[in-house]
Amino acid sequence: MSKAVLDALSQRFPSAVHDPYSHRGDEAIFVAPAAVVEVATYLKHDPTMDMKLLLSVTAVDYLGQTPRFEVVYHLTSLTHHHRVRLRAKVPETPAEIPSVSGVWRTANWWERHVFDMYGIRFTGHPDLRRLYMPETWEGYPLRKDYPLRGRQPLVPEKDIRDLVRGPGPQPRTSDRVFPGRAPRR
Questions:
Q1: Model-level pTM greater than 0.85?
Q2: DSSP string over the chain
Q3: Alpha-carbon span 117 to 11, nearest angstrom
Q4: Beta bridge partners of 84
Q5: Does a structural domain hold residue 184?
Q6: Is residue 160 part of a domain?
Q7: Euclidean distance between CA atoms 45 and 34, whole angstroms
Q8: Residue-number span of the structural domain to which 78 is assigned
Q9: Using alpha carbons only, what angle is made at residue 127 by residues 121 and 38, rounded to the nearest 5 degrees?
């Protein structure tokens, strides 16, 4: 069934998609980075495709190859029971691709994940900032040239007196709970 999706994409976008393939039931097609939003919009809104579920957005680092990165979109149609993988090759400089967060809202977090781990920027993203690492983190941990023994600058600790309850009024001391007993130190 998903083979029909690849054929439809090849016919509708002959200059934007290329090299469709199927391997063990997984259909995939390469998409030009500039056409990712157009192809994604078609796949979501066309009634014969109905790819309303974006399962994930991830990236692959092919260190030493040109282009170096590949952004991969996993899409599923719950009504037609087919799935497809879109693959877009992204150069190392500038490592940018248009954002599909306007098509699928879930792409917002997935694209932030890819940005934080690989450093690939998504143009047009509403809130592109680090998701896991602190803002002061240097480098991108899932790149193949990331130093394994590197040291990161220390992140200052936040002033939170009570780790369980957070900032705010402090709990009563034990001398109030148990009269006549000295508070613990």
A1: no
A2: -HHHHHHHHHHH-TTTEEEEEEETTEEEEEE-GGGHHHHHHHHHHSTTT---EEEEEEEEE-TTSSS-EEEEEEEEETTTTEEEEEEEEE-STT-EEE--TTT-TTHHHHHHHHHHHH--EEET-TT---SSS-TT--S-TTSTTS-TT--PPPPPPP--S-TTT-SSSPPPPHHHHSTT-PPP-
A3: 35
A4: 75
A5: no
A6: no
A7: 19
A8: 2-147
A9: 60
**Left if phi > 0, otherwise alpha if psi is -120 to 50, otherwise beta: which for 168?**
left
Length of the chain counted residue by residue: 185
Q: What is the CATH number of the domain that holds 141?
A: 3.30.460.80
| 117 half-sphere exposure, CB direction, 13 A CA radius | 15
pLDDT, tens digit, 9 for 90 and up, residues 111-141: 999 999 999 999 999 999 999 998 888 899 9
Whether 165 is in a domain gets the answer no
Alpha carbons 113 and 139: distance in angstroms, whole number: 14
Residue 134, domain member (yes or no): yes
User: Helix 36-45 crosses helix 2-12 at what angle (to 10 degrees)?
Assistant: 130
- Looking at the 3D structure of the chain, how many domains does it have? 1
**How sure is the predictor about 165, in pLDDT bands with cuts at 50, 70 and 90?**
low
Distance from the first to the final alpha carbon of the chain: 69
